[in-house]
Structure formats: structure tokens, C-alpha cells
Amino acid sequence: MKNLNDVLSGVDEVLNSAKHGNFEDVLTKTKSYAEKATKKSAERLEISRKKIELLDSKTKLSKAYEKYGKLQYSAYLGELVSDEEIEAALQEIQLQKTRADLLDKEVAELRAAFVEGLSKKEARQFEREEAEEADQEAEETE
């Protein structure tokens, strides 16, 4: 009986150590996954933040074009328009155009770096989501 108890005790120890080892593996894998998910979320958040900045810049650019157009139309009608107002509108157009171009590049670079770190399946899903967002934005602007 003593040998049988020793054997059973040994088997219990092996099973317990295996369970304990697997639990640590599960914790390690879970921690690793959580870190990757956190990193991907932060990257995606940064892309979204830059896209919002880009949309803001494009909105300001559109308003600057509108202001410039109104000034030019007023001048066409013979109304008095100051050169300073026209120059300010032109500078605002140039500023927002430059800003939008830079932000567009930043978004493209961030997006490329993000997609590069994804699996092929995740990359396809991300691109589908982006296409859907673009379609929604296009519908909203129409």
C-alpha cells in the first residue's frame, strides 16, 4: 500500500505541476496578447486622431476657399475689397493646404506601419473597416 500511495502521490504532484505550469503559460500568453492589443489600440487611436486633425484642416481649407471666393465675387461686382483681406485669405488657404498635405502623409505612414504589423486576415478586416468609414464620410459630405 505504501508503494501505491507513493505512486498516486507522485502522479498528483506531476499533474499539479503540469496544471501549474499551464496556468503560468496561460497567464504569460494572456499578458502578451493584452500588451499587443493595447499597442494596436493606441496605434489605431493615433490614426483616428490624425484623421480628425486632417478633417479639421480640410474644413478650414474649405472655409478659406469660400471666403476668398466671396471676396473675389465682391470685387467682381465692383465693391471695395481690401488687398489685406484677399492676402489673408490666400495665406489661410496656403497654410491649411500645407497642413492638410502633411497630415495626409502622416496618416498614410501611420496606417502603413499599423497594417504592416497585422496578419493578412487582420489587414483585410482593417481595410474593409476603413473602406466602410470612407463610404460613410462620402455620404455625409454629399
Structure overview:
- 92% of the residues lie in helices and 0% in strands.
- It is an all-alpha fold and 142 residues long.
- The mean pLDDT is 82.
Q: Overall mean pLDDT score?
A: 82
What percent of residues are in strands?
A: under 5%
The major sheet is characterized as: none
Give the total of beta strands. Answer: 0
Structural class: mainly alpha
Q: Any idea what the radius of gyration is?
A: 30 Å
What is the tally of helical segments?
Answer: 3
Principal-axis shape: elongated
Elements, N to C (H/E): HHH
End-to-end Cα distance: 85 Å
How is the topology of this model organized?
Elements: H1 2-76, H2 83-116, H3 120-141
Helix pairs in contact: 1-2
Summarize the structure in short.
By secondary structure, the protein is an all-alpha fold. The chain has helices at 2-76, 83-116, 120-141.
Keywords:
142 residues; mainly alpha; 3 helices; 0% strand; elongated
